[in-house]
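Exercise: predict the fold of this chain.
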Amino acid sequence: MGDQSDITKLSRKSGISTRTVLILIIVASVAIRLWGLDFGLPQQFHPDEPVVVSRAEYGVATGEWNPHAFHWPSLQFYLIGFEYEVWFQIGKITGAWENPELADFPEGDRFISYTLRNPSGFYYLGRLTTVLFSAGLIWMMFIFSRRFFPDNMALLASALLAFHPIIVRHSRFITPDIPSEFFFLAALFFMDRLYMSIKGAGEGSTSESDRKIFWTAIISAIMIGLGAGTKYPVGALFIPLALIVVFTPSRLAALTRIIFLIPLGITVGVVFLRYAFALRSH
């Protein structure tokens, strides 16, 4: 506690708020991740990156979004594909895909030709997306940690995550690790809020409190579904979510708890299937 009070006194003397320190940590973490973002380019040294990038490019060029392979789910593939789709439409307007040598080829083929000749920009865009997820992960770590610890300790947890060498390394690549960790932590955050909401529900709870519990649970389920759509194991969080709904000490009616479970299971399933098994049509 002595160290903690010393940090608090130092913060007060310097006039730096907790929010300012958090912003500085996030900005510094982004700067570190941007340094070295060009690793391996134009060759692709990380073996997982071409899997995501090539699928997304193919989806944009052909309109075929089913990856036909599910070693990991497809949310990241769709997210990167949306960014490439925007790029593709801008290129159509500016004439970037025009190539006299390929004048007789379809526009999608000219786009693929461009990606093969100039791959670096597509990898930069995908890696930058991972960097943004990493920044969100650091912020989520802070707001989740402060639920259990003082702000000083929450800042320390965020800093450890921001500057951990392995996290920094993975935050530079187009892989599902960092996005899935973001959704995992976001799901835990909303599950904690759900626990507190149910615990605070008294006998004869109002429709307003029931509505708050319901939507907090739904958001938790959405985060779990998105996480599972990025990396399958995140879907296991549905088990503690269900346990929270059923067993959290409260005067909330048992029937209400059971009714809550039905839309939660449907939400997780629909969100997961939407982004794991290519139910998207183009």
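Check your answer against the key: Residues 66 and 278 are 5 Å apart (CA to CA).
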